[in-house]
Amino acid sequence: MVAFAEVLPNDGNFIMAAQHVALDLVKRIKIPINSTSPQGLRDASKQDPWAQSGKYGLGWVYLSVILLLFATALRCYHLWGDKIRTAQYKEEVINSSTVISPEPEYELTSARTFRSTQRFFPSNGKLPEKPKEESAVSTIAPLNNIVSLFRWIFYRPVPALRIGRLCIVFPSLGATAVVVISLIFCILYTFIPQPFYYESISYGSPPLAIRAGMISVAMMPWIIGLSMKANFITFLTGIGHERLNVLHRWGGYLCLLMALIHTVPFYIQAHRDRGGFETYKLYFTQQYYIFTTGIAALVPLAFLCIHSLPFLRTWMYEGFVALHVPVSMVFVGMLFWHCNNYLGSWNYLYATIAIWFLSYLCRLFYLNWTNPLRMSWLIGEESAVTLLPENAIKVTIPTQKKWKPGQYVYLRMPGISFFENHPFTIASLCSDDFPSEYGEEYRDMILVFRPFGGFTRKVYNTAVEKGPYKTYRAFIDGPYGGMRREMASFDQVVFFAGGSGITAIASQLLDLIKRMRDGKAVTKKVRVIWALKRPETMEWFKEELRICREYAPTDSIHCSFFITASKRYDKEPKPSRSRPHSDFLHDKVNDVFQGVASKRNSALIIADANGDPDRERELRDENEDSITALPPVFLAPPRFAVGEKPRKGSKRNSQPAPPPAESKVFDFGFPQTPTKLQKNLMRFAFLPTTRSDGWRTEYGRPDIPYALKELSKDFGRRTCIFVCGPPSMRTDVANTVAKLQHDVWSDPGKDEIFLHAENYAI
């Protein structure tokens, strides 16, 4: 108190002077310094002065920008190389098509072939140089070796940590490296500068707390940017938001750590220096407890981090989705109150809100119901649900949206569950070669998934109860994700799929075959390795597999199917209703949307008929035909247990079977019903069925490391390996591809072995 009185003006009483000073000072009080000031106060004005503490927030910004520029430069390098290789190949195809037959000057005029031979192979001079097949940038050996070295390190997955029943799954090694670099930077930048505390808290807030607080606030724009589906980081780096979400989550944990480091020094010094703390409280005019604003900001941050822990998020996913964004808004509001624009901290919060707003604004262009020029405006698209073998679900959505192979969308179906919104990979190809029956502007977006629990189980139950001719309104958010590289620029492509992971590969495979036939793909060989439990699963993509076999260039596609289980589903699971009372509400909501769509169709019909009753009647008949759930070709035939025959009068025989599709039966290369001996030996690869065209089926699990090592002997200059399957499959593929990076260093004929691992859950 004496130290404080020494710096007060002489012409005012103590209380009035304290109030006057409190109006001009901020949390780290800038007290006038003169010859009578205490030595500790004079040291505080020179050692890490409060006025210069804003640099710690800028330090985090500089680190983030450096990491962002590195990822962007790496993407540009790969993108440029892919585009150049594809363009060179197209040019080569065009040139070769123009010289299939010799020019007139090379035509043979007589049987004396030596003259023509001299034309093609001149005796004097050099032979024409072979055209370059690779761009100069993408064939720099040292650069490719450096990239392969990083892949040799970062392709390896981090083993999961098991503590009893608790399983801690770490992010990829690349994401872990980014998190570790950020953690080391924050710790060093906070604890290396001195001092940690001033001699008295009356001289100002602890410098350690201010450093940590500024770094924590500076993280906010980046944390929010990493969380949004449509964000500028994805635009620059090409990394999908589903992968950036890992950095968003760990960035939140790091922000909480720095917030705690910001909080603790205040309590420590307030406890040690009680007299100085009484003086420190006089600097503030708030009527609440002095640390109220800090606690108000810390509590929502702690809640956001705790309820986003993987096991809690999985246990209460719907609650997590419902609470995360509102609590985040409360947290940002509390930060405005707590920071009070000290050291320009509000600039980071303004940037946070700007990123938030722009991301949501851009997201409007990803929704299928926000375009007033489309029929789906505000009411979504019409969709149909079909049951496939092995109790899988197929949702077909004719839409005008465009998508790329391997992308996914978030699906909401109010007629089934109004509030749930879940991601599903698009299994169909958006191409003019696959038009929709809804019209030339529409393409069928097909989603295939298994019913496990929650939303997927509700879709299955509703489809069983309502039948195949019930349609539902579908609200789509997307597409998102996809490969960052151009798959058609690789010489060879290897696909690994596990079970329903084939959904992420089907569209990629069709697109690649189409490009190969059109001369737009460098790819010469494609190999597909699909591990599935039962042969019936292949019925999901029977048409796609038929296209691969019949339309792919000769000897370019090799498919290996591995049947890993012998037990079949003898009976379909009975539908379970978790909320039977909600059916009425869901049906009403769906009927409202369907009614609006019907009125829009009716208005278009009247306008198109232009007063002609016959034309109007014809259009209405066509419209009635078009709103059935699916054409008969899409309906799966009734399924019976192995050896079971349809019984007369049974429920499954009560409905007429749809007419068979006008397509020939596709042979997958194995018997439809395995023999008893084969069933007993399904766990072993003793009974492979190999075909001469490279398609084969084996009973057993694939030996992924051995298969990749054998395939690597024939790899070209650049090879892409795409995997979508359970964690064990992704781990085996990632470890093997990491080891194969050694071939890039030792073999001058190989420039790149690229790995793309897709999340099995999407």
From TrEMBL:
Enzyme class name: oxidoreductase
UniProt-listed InterPro entries: FAD-bd_8 (IPR013112), FAD-bd_FR_type (IPR017927), Fe3_Rdtase_TM_dom (IPR013130), Fe_red_NAD-bd_6 (IPR013121), Ferric/Cupric_Reductase (IPR051410), FNR_nucleotide-bd (IPR039261), Riboflavin_synthase-like_b-brl (IPR017938)
Domain FAD-binding FR-type stretches: 375-486
Subcellular localization(s) per the UniProt record: Cell membrane
Molecular functions per Gene Ontology: ferric-chelate reductase (NADPH) activity
Gene Ontology CC: plasma membrane
EC number(s) recorded for this UniProt protein: 1.16.1.9
Keywords in alphabetical order: Cell membrane, Electron transport, Ion transport, Membrane, Oxidoreductase, Transmembrane, Transmembrane helix, Transport
Catalytic activity: 2 a Fe(II)-siderophore + NADP(+) + H(+) = 2 a Fe(III)-siderophore + NADPH
Top-rank taxon, per record: Eukaryota
Transmembrane segments: 60-80, 166-192, 212-238, 250-268, 288-312, 319-336, 348-366, 493-510
CDD domains with a match to the protein in the record: NOX_Duox_like_FAD_NADP
Region: Disordered, residue numbers: 641-666
GO biological process: copper ion import; intracellular iron ion homeostasis; iron ion transport
Pfam family, any one: FAD_binding_8
Protein topology in the membrane: Multi-pass membrane protein
Cross-referenced PANTHER family: FERRIC-CHELATE REDUCTASE, FERRIC/CUPRIC REDUCTASE TRANSMEMBRANE COMPONENT
Sequence similarity: Belongs to the ferric reductase (FRE) family.
Protein name: ferric-chelate reductase (NADPH)
Source organism of this protein record: Endocarpon pusillum
